[in-house]
Structures are given as C-alpha cells and as structure tokens.
Amino acid sequence: MSEQPRESLAQILGGRRGALDASIPPVAFVVGWLAAGQSIAWGAGAAIAVAVALGIFRFARGGKIRALVVSLAAVVAAALIALHTGRAQDFFLLQLMSNVASALLWAASIVIRWPLLGVVVGLVLGQKTRWRRDPVLLKAYSRASWVWVFGQYVLRVVVYGLLWWSGQVIALGVARTVLSWPLVALTVAVSGWVLYRALPPEHPGLRLAPETRADDVPGT
C-alpha cells in the first residue's frame, strides 16, 4: 500500500482571503487621513466605507454573514477609538491589544497542554479533541504553536507598539499590511515545517492520528 502524502498546513488552514481583507480598511484609513489633511473623521469614514464594500462583495460571493459582521464591527470600533481620543494612531490600538491578547492566549494554551494550533486544526479536520490522545501530535502541536506566539503575535506587538508609541500613522498602515497575509503565510509555513519535523516518519499524519487511550497522554 503506497504511503499517503502529507498535506501542508497551509492547505489545511487556508485563510488568505480573510487576512487580505483585514489589511485593506487600515490602508483606507491612512489614505483618507492623508487626503483630507490628516482628518481622523475622513480617515475613519474611508475605512468604514471600504469595510462595508468588502462585506457586501464577500457576502455576494457566499461569505458567512457572521464573519463579515465581526470584521465590520472591528473597523467601526477602531474608528470610534481614534475619533474619541483625537489621535490617528489610535485607529491601530485595537489591533495592537488584540495581538497582545492572542500572544498571551496562545502561550497559555501551550502551558496547559491545549495548544491552540492543535485545537484549530482539529476543528478544521473534524477531529474535535481526538488529536490529544496521541502524545506525539500533542508535543508537535505544542512546538509549532510557539511559532505563532513569537513569529506572529509578539512580533506584531513589538512593531505596532513602537510605531503607535511614536505616532507613526503611515508606518502603522504599512506595517498593518505587511504583517497581515505575508506574515500569516510565513507563520503557517514555518509552523507547518516545525510540526511535521516533530512527527516521526512512521506517523500517519494530522488526518490519521492513531487512536490511543486518553490516559496515555501526560497531564490528562
């Protein structure tokens, strides 16, 4: 029987469209802010208008209404924060704080032996939590999850934090774009490499995790 080739993590997770869409309203904010003589109101209006247009476009193409509403709500919240404080860089404050929260959440998930990469992949593959019955997969997901902690979330916190603190609005818009889909793609690729490197050659892979007893997993 021939060995089944392993899928890449990128093939399993996908998600490029969402990361791309999330980077467009912040760019619209910066463009509107500059075009109107550094008017936060115009920048906020441009970001919301673009977010609404993207939502309508994605909905017409079969997008999930819940995801579209959440994305629009995040843009509206970011705009309201900037309008309230009167500082253009605060449009990016919500994104900064969400990455702080994500870094802490992902790190905590590894410590308590519920690595979020395993949780996400398990849900996508329809395995729920069965992957935790395999100690090899549990260890591999834990190692790969650290790539998400430091290679994505902590990196964003450092870059966004420094630019926000110094009030670099244009640079924040550029960073928001560069650290969206390009960084996500790199993180998925590197974490996928780490994940599969941690699996022995004879392991059946992510979709074919062997059924083991729950008491075989340390800490359960």
From TrEMBL:
UniProt-listed Pfam families: DUF3159
UniProt cross-references to InterPro entries, sorted A to Z: UCP010219
Transmembrane listed as a keyword: yes
Residues passing through the membrane, by range: 40-60, 67-84, 104-125, 146-166, 178-199
Keyword Transmembrane assigned: yes
Protein keywords: Membrane, Transmembrane, Transmembrane helix
Name recorded for this polypeptide: DUF3159 domain-containing protein
Organism: Amycolatopsis heterodermiae
